[in-house]
Design a protein that fits this description.
alpha+beta; 17% helix; elongated; 4 strands
Length: 103
């Protein structure tokens, strides 16, 4: 799966800004879950998803592609300004955002 340029910007964001917040968590960005694929086979070099896509290289190293696990495909990734302190939650959840908070 290819990483978007927007995701690369997220990975390179300045952690010092985040670490100054004394919250249990923050919302850094928003995105849409566009698809979900199950991993059907994997080894040290690649993983095969149920849609036929093969994951290799950096993408393989950045996730857990054990058989039975899932890979999420996201779209519409947008950073927030400023970050929003929130209590973290496991799984998918929604948070109401005003458009002016999005970069």
């Amino acid at each position: 799966m290819r990483r978007s340029k927007d995701l690369s910007q997220f990975i390179q964001c300045d952690y010092k800004i985040i670490s100054g917040l004394h919250a249990t968590g923050v919302i850094l960005a928003t995105c849409e879950l566009s698809n979900c694929y199950q991993v059907i086979d994997a080894n040290h070099a690649s993983a095969i998803l149920d849609c036929g896509k093969v994951v290799t290289g950096e993408d393989l190293l950045l996730g857990d592609y054990s058989p039975g696990y899932f890979a999420w495909e996201i779209a519409g990734f947008r950073l927030l300004k400023p970050y929003i302190p929130v209590k973290g939650k496991l799984g998918l959840w929604e948070y109401p955002l005003d458009e002016e908070l999005l970069i």
